[in-house]
Structure to design on (167 residues):
């Protein structure tokens, strides 16, 4: 009886191994895909245009801080104590405003970049799914999770081409 159970277990393991051997497995290099996508440049330009007014405002604030510091150094010897105090307060106020607006701008640009990156990642995933489905792949892994795979199992170029066509 024990021999029969062992034989059945061995046969089951062999059949499972054979079934796995028949699976079609592909890989994608996500880093390569993102570097080659034309949408990446479009997104970058879109975000640049979206935030340009705020970048301009930051440049103006930085210029104002620089001008106030120059005035402070240049006119310090001829200013009254009250004028010096007033200029120091104005400088501190502009610096604080610039810091606050800079922090908000950084947070907003990071958030929007993440939103756009996630949207693009969703599109890439749809392309991968479509290719895998059309070509009969059972599994598609990221290339950094695989020690070795034949070049013909790499779907990265196909994904990029599909994404270029899907613009």
């Amino acid at each position: 009886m024990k021999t029969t159970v062992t034989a059945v277990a061995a046969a089951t393991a062999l059949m499972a191994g054979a079934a796995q051997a028949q699976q079609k497995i592909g890989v994608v290099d996500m880093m390569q895909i993102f570097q080659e996508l034309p949408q990446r440049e479009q997104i970058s330009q879109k975000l640049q245009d979206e935030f340009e007014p705020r970048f301009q405002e930051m440049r103006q604030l930085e210029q104002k801080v620089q001008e106030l510091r120059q005035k402070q150094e240049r006119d310090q010897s001829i200013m009254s104590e009250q004028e010096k105090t007033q200029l120091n307060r104005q400088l501190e106020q502009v610096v604080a405003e610039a810091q606050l607006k800079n922090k908000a701008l950084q947070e907003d640009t990071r958030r929007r970049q993440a939103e756009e990156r996630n949207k693009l990642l969703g599109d890439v995933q749809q392309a991968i799914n479509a290719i895998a489905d059309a070509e009969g792949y059972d599994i598609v892994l990221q290339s950094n999770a695989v020690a070795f795979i034949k070049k013909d199992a790499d779907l990265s170029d196909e994904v990029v081409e599909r994404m270029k066509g899907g613009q």
Observations:
- The CA atoms of residues 32 and 134 lie 22 Å apart.
- The longest strand covers residues 25-28.
- Residues 3-15 have pLDDT under 50 and may be disordered.
